[in-house]
Design brief:
The chain is mainly alpha-helical and 93 residues long. It has a two-stranded antiparallel sheet.
Length: 93
Amino acid sequence: MDIQALIPPALAALHNFIRDYDPDEIHIYDNDYHLDEQFDPQMGLRCESLGELGTDPATAVERDRANERRDKIAADMWDQYQRYLESVRTPDR
């Protein structure tokens, strides 16, 4: 519980940092997005590399794509967790 109690203030600090250094931009993260190539330590992310805010609700195609991506991330996380469990299990003696 001590660690979990630190999460809200950490998120608030992160939120404030983002608001101070990047208040107007939205970041589009996809599989082709390479942060290292678009990050300048002095300026942050280059603006031309960022997406645009949508003006309309998401279409069915966009929702389906987002759902597929979410499901893939969840499946990958589950697989990674299962591999972790296998790596820490000790054989019965």
